[in-house]
Specification:
Blueprint: E1 2-9, H1 15-24, E2 29-33, H2 39-44, H3 46-63, H4 79-103, E3 107-110, E4 112-117, E5 120-125, E6 128-139, E7 143-145, E8 158-159, H5 161-164, E9 173-177, H6 181-192, E10 196-200, H7 212-224, E11 228-230, E12 234-241, E13 244-251, E14 254-260, E15 262-265, E16 269-271, H8 278-281, E17 304-306, H9 317-331, E18 345-347, E19 353-357, H10 360-365, E20 370-376, H11 381-385, E21 392-398, E22 404-410, H12 414-426, H13 431-435, H14 446-455
Parallel strand pairs: 1-2, 1-6, 2-3, 6-17, 8-15, 9-10, 9-15, 10-11
Antiparallel strand pairs: 4-5, 5-6, 7-16, 12-13, 13-14, 18-19, 19-22, 20-21, 21-22
Length: 465
């Protein structure tokens, strides 16, 4: 039997960070992982997808290099080498996590965990069964991909994101069912790698819940490159024909049939709660099965905590990591809590999309007197030198005092730019504060300054409206 102050089930971005922080604070810590440390994000999600997206973007740039005066020929993608490189990136990160946990004297147990009670966990390992006695239990098992009736995964024709990242070639014709973040990342990536793309989304826009102005830029870009996008639509039937399929899609204009080689289903995720015995423990969950906690990550059962995707949306690795820190510090007796104002989000489609705080619609709904300002990347020197003029920065502020309420970005490096906006909101900054902050030139972040200058009533590189 292993005795611990805290046992953490799940070694993903929430669990391993919780383990590191708990061990730093002197707690005897055990991290239990059934697969590989780093969890879904590092092994099958965030990291491998961004590895492939980086290569797809580079290949696409090379194909249009002549407009920059760069002559190239015979550009192609070696998928064997690409997958090898992706694997090396993952292995390096997983190895780093193992080293950190070991360096802080946390114990890692590899195997399937089953919760016996809030003080006891049994792990089935390659060597047998290991019992762990713990004073505190942290649940960090995350989520798994959801499927649809009639679109069950077969690992070959109908696949999920995990199989999509392991493909040895770009399918000639790819249908993406679900136009959310993951679906659009795959659509943009494989479009650049040569696939003909079809997207089927049941809602009335791509990236449901996002700012419609932002989404329109991405929608237009996909269509300009040949994608067929069916909104307010759903898949009715699949007629499998060997290595391809005819897919019947119900659209507002009637049904249509699309011939495809692969169908990638990305319609959301559901909590991974098997063997946690939540009902026996008495742990409360919401109607969708996500574990309910307070702002200190504590469930209704003393000594039992939940972090990350298991707690529910937004399902983001960086949110999970911060919650892991909170849980560890609370267990150690510190006055820690989830007291952040906002959690930024980023989608690595083409162009990239990022958002933090309130959208214009949400700000109006919340009762604010809203001021909206935008700055187009087409007017930004750095965007033009990079050959990426699409998109804009939108700043949403309170008209009465200029307080920054939200920022939405669609365009180059949006995922990197959003952190400045998140910091501004956390610190209670106004548009005047951002406008008065000198930004280096020529850079992409100048767009945030320019949009803030417009909101403050003194635009420089655009006409005052």
């Amino acid at each position: 039997m292993i005795e611990a102050d805290v046992a953490i089930i799940g070694g993903g971005p929430g669990g391993y960070v919780c383990g590191i922080r708990a061990a730093q604070l002197g707690l005897k810590t055990v991290v239990i992982e059934a697969d590989r440390l780093g969890g879904e994000c590092i092994n099958y999600g965030c990291i491998p997808s961004k590895s492939l997206i980086t290569v797809a973007k580079l290949a696409d740039k090379l194909k249009e290099a002549e407009k920059f005066g760069l002559k190239s020929s015979g550009v192609s993608v070696d998928f064997v080498q690409l997958q090898k490189w992706k694997g090396e990136v993952i292995s390096r990160l997983v190895g780093g996590i193992e080293l950190l946990l070991k360096g802080y004297h946390a114990t890692v147990v590899k195997g399937e965990a089953e919760v016996v009670s809030k003080e006891s966990v049994v792990v089935t390992t390659d060597q047998g069964r290991e019992e762990i006695s713990c004073r505190n239990l942290v649940l960090a098992t995350g989520t798994r991909t959801s499927s649809l009736p009639g679109l069950e995964f077969d690992g070959d024709l109908v696949i999920g994101s995990k199989e999509g990242l392991d493909m040895k070639s770009a399918p000639k014709r790819l249908m993406v069912v679900g136009g959310g973040a993951i679906g659009l990342e795959f659509a943009s990536m494989f479009q650049k790698l040569g696939s003909a793309i079809t997207i089927v989304e049941i809602m009335d826009q791509l990236l449901p819940g996002s700012d419609p102005d932002v989404v329109r830029v991405v929608h237009r870009k996909l269509e300009s490159r040949g994608a067929k996008i069916y909104l307010k639509s759903k898949v009715l039937r699949i007629d499998k024909r060997g290595s391809e399929a005819a897919v019947e899609v119900e659209t507002p204009d009637g049904s249509t049939t699309v011939d495809v080689d692969k169908i990638l289903v990305s319609v959301g995720r559901k909590p991974r709660t098997e063997k946690l015995n939540l009902q026996a423990l008495g742990v409360q969950t919401d109607p969708r099965g996500y574990v309910a906690t307070d702002n200190r990550m504590q469930t209704n059962i003393p000594g039992v905590y939940a972090i990350g995707d298991l707690r529910g949306p937004p399902l983001l690795a960086h949110k999970a990591s911060r919650e892991g820190v909170v849980a560890a510090e609370v267990i150690a007796g510190m006055p820690s809590a989830a007291d952040w104002k906002v959690v930024p989000d980023a989608v690595f489609c083409d162009p990239e999309v990022s958002s933090v705080g309130l959208t214009e619609a949400k700000a109006v709904e919340a009762g604010y007197k809203v001021r909206r300002s935008r700055f187009q990347f087409a007017a930004l020197g750095r965007a033009l030198t990079a050959g990426e003029p699409e998109g804009f920065v939108k700043v949403i502020s309170n008209e009465d005092d200029g307080l920054v309420l939200g920022v939405q970005i669609v365009g180059p490096e949006a995922s990197d730019l959003i952190s400045e906006a998140a910091l501004a909101i956390e610190m209670g900054a106004t548009v005047e504060d951002i406008a008065l902050t000198i930004h280096p030139h020529p850079t992409f972040p100048e767009a945030i300054m320019e949009a803030s200058e417009s909101s403050a009533g003194r635009p420089i590189h655009q006409l005052k409206t």
